[in-house]
Amino acid sequence: PFGGLIELPENGKNAFPAAFFTAAAGPLFSLLGFILSPYLFKWQILSFSSAFSFMHANLLLLLFNLLPVLPLDGGRMLQAILSRFFRRKPVSNALLILGNVIALSLIGLSVYGAVQGQYQFAPAFAGLYVLYGCGMENRCSAYHYYTNLISRRSRPLAHPLPVQQL
Question: What is the pLDDT of residues 7-24, one digit of tens each?
């Protein structure tokens, strides 16, 4: 978790299913770990406290990873769905703005809790991670855009135009 990346082709007939299901694999395995945790205790593979910790960690990872924030899998899945209907650049920009809002909300939630006397730093660290991820995604967006244009230009045409001699 936290930082794995698979580069997929951004164009073509299979871009949507490949991008969506690749992004959905992370949350799917977190869900599988959450579901299997009680059985690991039942089959005496893990102690109760270890199985409970494993279940809790998988649930938190699943919920965090499903946030509709672009560097996370939830954002990648939403981007794959929305890119079928809208242009990719505005979708990416909207998801980056949403990511920054969610990140600042998580940090604000942690600060508000600290003011109330409840020192929970996990939301602040999650918000800082999301803020950093949005910044990196924004920095790399121009690179992805130009790479996409170059690959589109160098791709051979399915039906080449006939060449006429002058």
Answer: 555 544 446 777 788 888
